[in-house]
């Protein structure tokens, strides 16, 4: 994959591609009696696109949210760029500024325009001047194909447009990593491809991404690696070609036989 275009943000995100960026070691998480993350260990390298798939209730979204500490863990270690995930305070806020998060429900500020949604983080957190933040935001909105919607409120946009704004908002913080938790699951079918196209573009330009999704086409096209989870465990990790064409576990074979039949 090519290096991420530095003109889109304030620095070159993909410097040092191939070095470990996210490390999870023996991560466990319970919800009462439910063991939702069971001894999870994996590494995501800088510039890598990892797609996490699996049946509902397998722990995919919890894993994604734990990396940003939106969910706490019971035991184990998560580190980002060599630093242990902080528990609270300014260090946690700094980490969240470096780790973008795109949710299935967009989470845009309804009372702010598209442009204001994208500039809020750079101005408030990065202390960027308003004019510079707006210039950056317009470049990113153009990149995701919604620059002509900059003055509108989120309610005036389609779901696909709102999700593309949410992606631009994450990029505006110049993140080391973007986490995407089922970013197309709340969209009407005809809007899914416009968001997937943006995601593929980010992958092609070297953005480090962890994507929880049911979009197998995206996994085949854009992922460097597929992690298949079931019952809170990582059952398989492989390249897309290896996983989709030659799954090793019976659990993965059963999952693929059902999901690829539709």
Keyword list:
262 residues, alpha/beta, Rossmann fold, disordered N terminus
In short:
Keywords: Amino-acid transport, ATP-binding, Cell membrane, Membrane, Nucleotide-binding, Transport. The protein is an alpha/beta fold and 262 residues long. The protein has one domain (19-260): Rossmann fold, CATH 3.40.50.300.
Explain what this protein looks like in three dimensions.
The protein is an alpha/beta fold and 262 residues long. The protein has one domain: P-loop containing nucleotide triphosphate hydrolases (Rossmann fold, 3-Layer(aba) Sandwich), CATH 3.40.50.300. The protein is built from nine helices and ten strands. It has helices at 60-67, 89-98, 114-124, 130-143, 159-171, 189-204, 216-222, 240-245, 250-259, and strands at residues 20-31, 34-45, 49-53, 75-80, 83-84, 99-102, 177-181, 209-212, 225-230, 233-238. Strands 6-7-8-3-9-10 form a six-stranded mixed sheet, sandwiched between helices. It is globular. The two termini are 30 Å apart. Residues 1-16 have low confidence and may be disordered.
List the helices and strands and how they pair.
Blueprint: E1 20-31, E2 34-45, E3 49-53, H1 60-67, E4 75-80, E5 83-84, H2 89-98, E6 99-102, H3 114-124, H4 130-143, H5 159-171, E7 177-181, H6 189-204, E8 209-212, H7 216-222, E9 225-230, E10 233-238, H8 240-245, H9 250-259
Parallel strand pairs: 3-8, 3-9, 6-7, 7-8
Antiparallel strand pairs: 1-2, 1-4, 4-5, 9-10
Helix pairs in contact: 3-4, 3-5, 4-5, 5-6
């Amino acid at each position: 994959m090519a290096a991420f275009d530095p003109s889109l943000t304030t620095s070159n995100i993909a410097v040092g591609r191939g070095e470990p960026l996210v490390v999870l070691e023996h991560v466990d998480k319970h919800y009462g009696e439910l063991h939702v993350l069971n001894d999870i260990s994996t590494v995501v390298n800088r510039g890598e696109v990892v797609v996490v798939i699996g049946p509902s209730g397998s722990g995919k979204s919890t894993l994604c949210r734990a990396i940003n500490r939106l969910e706490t863990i019971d035991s184990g270690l998560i580190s980002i760029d060599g630093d242990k995930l902080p528990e609270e305070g300014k260090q946690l806020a700094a980490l969240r500024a470096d780790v973008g998060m795109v949710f299935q429900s967009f989470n845009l500020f309804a009372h702010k325009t598209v442009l204001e949604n994208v500039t809020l983080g750079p101005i408030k957190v990065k202390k960027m001047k308003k004019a510079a933040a707006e210039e950056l935001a317009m470049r990113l909105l153009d990149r995701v194909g919604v620059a002509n919607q900059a003055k509108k409120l989120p309610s005036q946009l389609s779901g696909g447009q709102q999700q593309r704004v949410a992606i631009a908002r994450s990029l505006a913080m110049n993140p080391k990593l973007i986490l995407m938790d089922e970013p197309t699951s709340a969209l009407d079918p005809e809007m899914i491809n416009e968001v997937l196209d943006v995601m593929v573009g980010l992958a092609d330009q070297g953005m480090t991404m962890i994507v929880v999704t049911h979009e197998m086409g995206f996994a085949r096209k854009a992922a460097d690696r597929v992690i298949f989870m079931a019952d809170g465990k990582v059952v398989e990790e492989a390249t897309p070609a290896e996983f989709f064409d030659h799954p090793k576990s019976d659990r993965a074979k059963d999952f693929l036989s059902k999901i690829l039949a539709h």
